[in-house]
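#struct-help
A.M.: can someone run this one for me? Single chain, 904 residues.
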Amino acid sequence: MTRMQPTDLRTEFVRTPLGIDERNPDLRWRVDTDRRGAAQTAYRVLVTSSRDRLADDEGDVWDTGKRESETPSVTYDGPPLEAGTDYYWKVRVWDDDEAGAWSEPAMWGTGLLEADDWEANWIRRPEEVDVDAVDDFERGQFTYARREFALPDDADVERARASVAACHQYELSVNGERVDRGQSFSYPDYHYYKTVDLTDALEAGENAVGALFTWQGEGQGRPTAEPGFICQLEIDLADGSEQTIVTDDSWRLREAEWDEDAPLRNDEIGEAVELVDGRDEPRGWAEPDFDDTDWTAAGVVGEHPTDPWERLIAQNREVVSREIEPESITQVDDETYVVDFGRVYTGLPELRFADGTAGHRVGMRAGYHLREDGTVHEQEGTQWTDMRYAYVQRDGACTFRPFNYLGVRYLQLESPGEEFSADQVSLRALHNEVPDERAATFACSDETLEEVFELARHSALYGSQEQFIDTPTREKGQFLMDALNISAVSRRAFGERALTRQAIREFVRSHYRYWEEEGRLSAVYPNGDGKRDIPDFTEGFPDWVWQYYRESGDRAILETAYPVVQAVADYVAEHVDDETGLVTELSGGEGGPYEEGIVDWPPEMRYGYDRDWPARTTVNILGANAFDKAAAIADALERPDEEVETYRDRKRALEAAIGAHLFDGDLFVDGCDATDASEGRSQHANAFALAFGLVPDDAIDGVADHIAEMGMQMGPMMVPRLLEALEAADRTDALIELLTNAEDDGWANILAQGGTFTWETWHCRDPELPTDERQNRSESHAMGAPVLVSIQRALLGVRLADREGSHLEIRPAIGHLEHASGRVPTERGRVEVAWSRSDGKCDLEVTVPWNATASISLPSDAETDRVGVTPVASSLPDGVSDVQRGDGSIVVDVESGTYQFTLE
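D.P.: on it. C-alpha cells below:
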C-alpha cells in the first residue's frame, strides 16, 4: 500500500526560499504514487519555529488541523510572521479515510519585512554621494567594496543571512569565495534585494565580506537609477549571541579594473565593451588581512529607505550557471584561435592563461557566425552589437572573466601570448533557475520534430535570465509579448513559476507607473526610456494572466492583476467605433512603427499584411480575447455577476462586429473602415480567427485549408496563433509539415541553416534582404520557442483542461507518428504518454499524476476496435470511470495512475 507521502514542498512556488516578504505565503505539495485513483480529500499542515519541533507533530506557530480539501495547497493564515526568521513546515494528506505519511520537513525564511528592519546604508563612491544629476555619474562603472570583521575564536555559526541589493548588479564574496550574484534591474522606488545564506561561509576568528557592484546607466530592461550598494549581514551564534554587519562608512571602496571609458556595445543596452586590465585586479580583496590602506572610505548616501531607494522587495528567484566546455578549438593562424561551444548560449566566457606577460593585451570577439577564413564574424546574427572583449595580462597565471553576459557560440582569441588549448577556456552559461530543466521530454519517429523540440527548450531556458529577455545580445529587455511567449514555454517545459510571477507583477507596475490614466502597459519593462507601449502587447496581457493562473492556480496573481486587466478591457472598449462596432485606431505606439498595432514583428514577418485600415483584424480579435479573459478572471475571483456579464457582452458584441465586417463569407480580411474592406486575406487574420474560435462552423474547413496552404507566413512572435489554429481545426498533418519543412520558413529551416537558438525572424540569413536589415536581426530570440507547447498539445496530445492540471484531455497523435513518448509537468505532477505502432497494432501507455483525472481519446473506426477496456460500466477496470464511443474515437475517463491500451 502506498504511503502517500507529500513531496516537492514549495513556499511561494519556490523550494526553500530564504527571504520572502509575503505575510501570508502560499504553501504547495504533491504526492508521487502509482496507486490508481489516488487523490487528496483532506490535508493537515504544521508550521513551527524550529525543525526539531516538527518531530512532535505539533505546530507551535500554526496548525491547520485536518481540513477537507481536494486542492494541494493552502495560504498561510496563522499568527503574523516575524522578519528575518526561518519557519519549518510539513504536510500530510488523506485519501478518503486513509491517512498518508508526513512529508519530510521544508523551510522558508522571511526577509526584512518593514523599512525599520533595515539598519544598513546605501553606499557608493564617496565623490558621487552629493551628485545631483544622473548624467554626472560615470557610465559603466565597476566598484569593489569590502569590510573585515571578527567572530569569537570559538564561535559556532548557527545561522548567517545577508540581505543584499545593488543598482544594478553585484557579485558577493566571503573569505575569498564568490557566494552569490544578484541583478536588481528595477526602479529605485521599488527595488529588489536578495537574502543569501552565509552560514557555511563564515569562520571563527577573522572574516571578510565584499562585493563587486556595477551601475551602467539606462538601457533595455534596465532603468537609469543611480549607483549604490547595500548589505545587512545578521549572524546568530550557537551561544545565543548575535552580530550585525551593515554597509556604512567603515566599508572600503575602490574602482575595479574595467575601463570606464570603453565604447558602448550598442545604443540599446548601455553596456560598455569589457576592457579589463588584469594588472589592476586586487588579488585577495575579499580575504581577511588584505591591505586596503589605499582604498577609500565608502560614501554613505543614507540609511534605507533613502532617496532614491524608497522600498526594497524580496526577489525570490535566482540566475544559476553551468560550465560549458568547448566542442572544438581551432588555431586559424599563428596568433588566432577560434573556440566553438557547439550552440548559442547566454553566458560569460572564461580564459585561463598559464604564463601571462604584464601589459600584454589579448583581444577577443564573440559571435554567432564564422567567416570563410574561419574567423568570427563581428556582425551577422548579433544586431550590430560590439561583441569584443580585451584583457591586459599580469605576470604569471591569470584569468579573464567578464561580468556581463552575451549570446555566445564562437569566441575568437587573438594573440594570447602562449599556445592555447581547450582546457584553458570555458563558458559559464547562465539561466533563470527552474525546478527541472528536463521536466518536459519528447521523442518520436521523426528526428526533425525531436530537434525542433530541443531547439525550443534550449532557447526558452537561455532566454530566461534576470527577466524574460528578448535577446542576450543587443537589447536584453523584457518585452511584454516576448515574455508572454517565453513564459508559456518555461512553465510547460520546466514547471517554472517564480519568474513568470515576477514578470507579470512588473508589467502590472508599468501600468501604475506610466499608464494608469490610459489603460495601457509598457511594451518593455523595466526600461531606460520609460513610457513606451505597443497596443497589441497591451491587449495580450489578460491572456497571459489567465493562462498562468490556469496552470498554477495562483489566485494572488489574479487579485494583483485584475485591476489592470479591467483597465486594459476599458482601454479596448473606449476605441470601439459606434458605426461598425469594431476597435478602430487603437491608440498606442504613437509616431512610430508600433502605432495602432504592429500585427507582427519585424516588419517582414507581416508577409504583406494590409495595415492601411482603421480597424485591423488582429487588433480586434485580440480585443475580443481581452474581454473574454477579463470575464474569466472576474468569474474566478467571484466578482458580481453584472461585472462578469459586462465583459461577456463586450466580447459577444465585438465578435459579432468582426463577423459582420471582417469576414467575407469564406475568409477573414485584414481590415476595414465603415464603407470598405481590405482585399488582403492574410494568414495572420485567418489564423487568429481560427485560434480564438471566431470562425463559423461551416467555414472552418475553408479557413483551415487557406492557412495550411500558405505554409509559414507568420513571424516567430505571433506564430503561436498559427499553431493553435491548426490544432483547433485538427490539422495535425499540416502542423507536422509546418514544423518539419526545412525548405520553407520555420524551425526546421533554422536547423537546416545551422541555427541553434530560435530567431527573431525566419529571414535572418535571407540573402535577398539588404545587408543592414539582415544584420539588424537577432539569432537568439526565444519568443519563437512556443512550438514546444504545441508539440505537447497536438502531438504528444496532452492538454490541461482544468485549473492546475486537475483534469487533462489526452489525445495522442497516434495516426500521424509511428511512435512517440514524453512528459509534461503540471502542478499535480508529471503526465507521461508513450505509444508505438507495429504490425497493425498500437500499444499506448498513459500516466495520470496524483490528484488528477483525464479523458483519453483513442482513435476508433469500427465497433470491433479493442482498446483494452469495455464500455460496460459494471466491469470497468480499476481507475476507469467511464468509456464512451464517439465519432471516430473512444473516450476513456480515468483517475490517476498508469494505464495500458492496445489498439488493433
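A.M.: thanks! The chain has five domains: 6-109, 115-315, 320-432, 446-795, 797-903.
D.P.: also worth noting: The chain is about 20% helix and 30% strand.
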